[in-house]
Amino acid sequence: MSKTFAVIGDPIDHSLSPNIHSAAFRELNLDCSYIAYKIAKDELEEGIESLKKIKISGFNVTIPHKVEMMKYLDKLDESCSIIGAVNTVTNDNGILKGYNTDMDGFLEPFKKRNLNIRNLKVLLLGAGGAARAIVVGFAKEHAKSITIANRTLENANKISEFANKIGLKANPIRIDEIGETTKNYDVIVNATSVGLKNEPSIISLDGINSKTIVYDIVYSPINTDFIKKAKEKGAIVIYGYEMLLGQASRAFQIWHGVEAPYNAMKKALLGGV
Ligand code: ATR
């Protein structure tokens, strides 16, 4: 029987998840479809009811529902309960189970490059939903410490408390306090949405060197200004599309029980690039 999957969020028209998953269905000859479904912030409950009515087999969750969605789950995978946010849901005859594949998706590019996170000093820009999954990832891989820099200090404080609670030494600062301190870090991650509209990087990367790992989770454009500045310094660069593919291939495996066709998914995302 044909199966239907979806990604829910708002805005949703620019989501690349339908392209990625559809390419995987074609590659593996699966009788499945994947739709982008716009659900406004205050209409999540009705949105989920309509997904159940059409017997959705599973769905991805994105901004602004990743935390709110937790309320509507019948079961939680550990990945989801520890992060406190959900990005992947399975539907077993109306029983919804939540997973979070963002953390593993984030860590995958480090593994692919054989980069060991243990004892590294991290500077994380941003303190939103994505930052939470990233903090759990760095805690799991035993980073030495994390500085959480955010425009709104209050949000940095919250994530910092969370990091300390799960055993990762953290301190919160405002982004404009970073100044020339980037040389003190082994890894610098942009988990703010800055770059999506081609804005210039919010920090200077002048102090970094060829050993610094610079990771932008913004994937569109592929070469953000932040990534370009890191390349100019010869740094080790990790692209946002790698995390996107990492979380998508894990969601695929959860839904279909087989390994995702990574290269077909990557090709759908990058085209001929
Ligand atoms: P996500 O789920 O992708 O993390 P989010 O929860 O909306 O999205 O978080 C967006 C992050 O980008 C926040 O850290 C936000 O900073 P604030 O906490 O101060 O809102 C950050 N951000 C968004 N626009 C920004 C801007 N123009 N300058 C600096 N930081 C920005």
Overall structural class, as computed from helix and strand content, comes to: alpha/beta
Q: From the coordinates shown, what is the CATH architecture of the largest domain?
A: 3-Layer(aba) Sandwich
Bound molecule kinds, no repeats:
2'-monophosphoadenosine-5'-diphosphate
If you average the pLDDT, what whole number results?
A: 96
Main CATH class of the largest domain: Alpha Beta
Oligomer: single chain
- Spell out the CATH superfamily of the largest domain: NAD(P)-binding Rossmann-like Domain
- Give the neighbour order of strands across the main sheet: 2-1-3-5-6-4
Query: Order of SSEs, N→C?
Result: EHEHEEHEEHEHEHEEEHEHH
SS element count, helices: 9
Note the gap between the termini: 35 Å
Rg to the nearest angstrom?
19 Å
Binding site for NADP(+): 78, 126-130, 217, 240
Pfam families: SDH_C (PF18317), Shikimate_DH (PF01488), Shikimate_dh_N (PF08501)
Subunit structure: Homodimer.
Function: Involved in the biosynthesis of the chorismate, which leads to the biosynthesis of aromatic amino acids. Catalyzes the reversible NADPH linked reduction of 3-dehydroshikimate (DHSA) to yield shikimate (SA).
